[in-house]
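explain this.
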Amino acid sequence: MDTMRDRFAPVVSRLLEEDPRVAVVLAEIGLAGFEEAQHRHPDRVINVGIREQLLIGAGAGLALTGLRPVVHTFASFLVERPFEQVKLDLGHQDVGAVLVSASASFDWPAGGYTHMAPGDVALLDTLDGWTVHVPGHPDEAETLLRHAVAAGDDKVYVRLSEQSNAEALAVDGTRFLTVREGRAGVVVAVGPMLDEVLDATEGLGVTVLYATTVRPFDSAALRRATEAAGTDVVLVEPYLAGTSTAVANDALADLPHRVLGLGVGRRELRRYGLIEEHVTAHGLDAGALRARIGEFLGQRARVRV
């Protein structure tokens, strides 16, 4: 199966043909995938070199002229390094762009900590008005990329990952999907965490919601799920643990509830290893998730006894 990033250049190249507003801004990374598109549209496929602040500034400048810029590089260079430009050039000037990242939290361990960005979504959460898509399968990535480009002039972040669920679901860029129903609690699985969550919660009697658009957070779906399953909520996110606990708490603010946020830990892992080793080290494999989710749900059961 191809990866989410394998879909990126072909999909956006087609969008360049379909929509004269679309432009692409790159900082060397991913340039090979756009060679033909750059030849056909030299004024709308721009490579700024290894200058990530300029990457965002150029995208914002194109947006000011009425274009719809798609801006791409590794997550750590797209959100973290040029964060001031994201804040000012896009946010303060009130213009939109589609930021499309690669490498997710730790998808290229050999690249070292410079190429890891588990805090990207939490960092964007400090800014107003961002839509954040976290696809869990290449087909979903294609759908959400198209959705993002078509979203008027909004500010959209699309987080691509090497990790993937086995099957795609019919995501729409807005809603959480209910993939399992139960009465023992609610588990929200974000993007590529779905398969691990489904394995981890088999037989636990929980409702599982699938989230590929995490901002805006689908509070209505969470509230509906808690009506039958109760207000014990677990969030399993492929980035910094606890990133969405505040918005989940806000969604249930008028109800007695508990929220557990699982995700990538804050401790830096200095032996970079393989993706699978990072998943295990952060407790995001099915076995560790089952133990942590089961213990959390069991706490309420023991209190009732």
About this structure: The two ends are 48 Å apart (CA to CA). Confidence is low (pLDDT under 50) at residues 301-305. The longest strand covers residues 232-240.
